[in-house]
Amino acid sequence: MRWARFRSNEGRTGFGVLDDAHITEYEGDMFGTPRPAGRALARGAFTLESPCRPSKIVALWNNFHALRLKLSKSAPTHPLFLIKPGTCVVGPGEAIRRPSGYAGKIAYEGELGIVIGKLCKDVSPHQAGDHIFGYTCVNDVTASEVLNENVDFAQWCRSKGYDTFGCLGPVITPELDWRQARVVTRLDGVERQNYPLSDMIIPPEELVSRISHDMSLLPGDVIACGTSVGVGSIKDGCTVEVNIGGIGSLVNVLGPGSS
């Protein structure tokens, strides 16, 4: 099953299970007890939205061996993370907007996202799987030159928290064999990243457990598992595609700046 949120061509919003031909609508709470609504929409009659509306994205840094070796970093013993606000989230097909007054580099990072399915606080690694609803694709966008704008304080949250800088989608896949999957990021059709998720230093269940001891994770929250080698810049008008087998392709374009 691939869970998705949608907006119909008439402006009605909802959620359901997506297949190649249509979306089967459900009612209730996606993270509670969803029930079939008894209707479906054909492809072309709706637009996909972000598959969840997180209160926050917990974004990992230095969580892949290949990148840590390239950067000459030690493997972390606890997740190294920052917080992206829920206001930064956009879905598939939505534009990434350049921040007002910012003309510097904007970077893409293709990642696997863990979607939390129920309130998660102080859980063990053994319990963590019960709190994972599924997985989605993430493009963790960064205003690169803001990050180290102040030499006294690295501005991780500011540089990554602008509106539209948290791209999620296209769907949430509950049953994903992430150990066999790869993240492939393409820029205007040219492959820029292609790395195995099996190279992850701290795996999903342990990430959920560790982070749940640092803060409460709410239904719909997303943990972005970090990226690997191949991060680069996006020029205005460029299309970024993040693809993970079993989930699909998340496609966004860097559009003009906000007014």
Task: Give the SSE layout.
Elements: E1 3-8, E2 13-18, E3 22-27, E4 35-42, E5 46-49, E6 56-61, H1 65-70, E7 80-85, E8 89-90, E9 95-97, E10 106-108, E11 110-116, H2 125-128, E12 132-140, E13 142-143, H3 144-147, H4 156-160, E14 166-173, E15 182-187, E16 190-196, H5 204-212, E17 222-224, E18 232-234, E19 239-244, E20 248-255
Descriptive account of the structure:
- The protein is built from five helices and 20 strands.
- The mean pLDDT is 97.
- The chain starts with a strand and ends with a strand.
- A hairpin with a 2-residue loop joins strand 15 and strand 16 (190-196).
- Strands 7-6-17-11-12-14-8 form a seven-stranded mixed beta sheet. A five-stranded antiparallel beta sheet has the order 4-3-2-1-5, with no helix packed on it. A five-stranded mixed beta sheet has the order 9-20-19-15-16, with no helix packed on it.
- The protein has 259 residues and is mostly beta strands.
Helix content: 10-25%
Uncertain runs are: none
Question: What is the number of beta strands?
Answer: 20
Spatial shape: globular
Report strand %: 35-45%
The gyration radius over C-alpha positions equals: 18 Å
- What is the succession of H and E elements? EEEEEEHEEEEEHEEHHEEEHEEEE
Alpha-beta classification: mainly beta
The CA-CA distance between the termini, in Å, is 39 Å
Q: Biggest β-sheet: count, sense, barrel?
A: 7 strands, mixed
- Spatially, the strands of the biggest sheet line up as 7-6-17-11-12-14-8
User: Average pLDDT across residues?
Assistant: 97
Oligomer: single chain
- How many helices? 5
